[in-house]
Amino acid sequence: MVGTKMIRSAAARAAASLAGALALLAGGAVTASVDAQAAAPLGRVCMFEAPDGAYGLGHAAFAVKVRGEANHWVYGSFGSTNDGPMAGWIKGGKWEQARAHFTDVRDRDQNGARYYTRYRCVNTKDGDVKRAQSWYGAVKGRGYNAALNNCLHMSMAVFKGCSEVLRNDPRLPSATKQFPNDYFEKILPAAHWEAPHNL
Asked: Which of 15, 102, 160, 180 is the most exposed place for a label (fewest CB within 10 A)?
């Protein structure tokens, strides 16, 4: 009798653990360690951030993993005079190249200090890099506007273009009337993005 109770208890614990894992997957956002950059077939997106950019309001950049590939990313930004033309820029490469690019950018206004200093990522159960690139083109085509079409608009458009899960997440509001630092520090963690990684 005791043996039967122990077996039932162990089975109940295992079922509860499986149910919890399935609930996380159903929610769409699944976090992983920084070493899990190549976790296929999940999609993965990262916001890079320069806290001192835009007179202390912050500057955002994006990186999205090509879903289903071991280590290919598309990354870029919009409106930065530090790391690209005002019209924006986009590149492709390995995670190590993307991270190295943002690490190497220096702040002209802060005596050459590192410009981007941190990033947050989140895994998603979907990911469409072609659509992300299309959204990049649409935002770029509207022209840079500090209030209505800026670096944060670009990053969120790319993320939401890449992932329908992120596009429909009510915890990720429009970038309009938001500042990059506030979005990075308050909104992304509330939407269960990973803790910040330092560059």
From this structure: 15
Residue 127 has, within 13 A of its CA and on its CB side, a CA count of 24
Strand extents, DSSP E, the chain: 29-30, 43-50, 59-65, 73-77, 89-93, 106-107, 113-114, 118-124, 197-198
Tokens of 85: 């033309």
- Note the pLDDT tens digit of each residue in 120-148: 999 999 999 999 999 999 999 999 988 99
Tokens at 123, concatenated: 């895994």
> Judging by beta carbons within 10 Å of its beta carbon (0-12, 13-18, 19+), is residue 190 exposed, middle or buried?
exposed
How far, in Å, CA of 118 to CA of 102, rounded?
9
Token pair of 43 as six digits: 């999609």
Distance of alpha carbon 102 from alpha carbon 117, whole angstroms:
8
- With CA atoms as reference, report the closest residue to 80 among 100, 43, 109: 109
What is this structure's pTM? 0.79
In Å, what is the CA distance from 61 to each residue of 79, 102, 155?
10, 9, 6
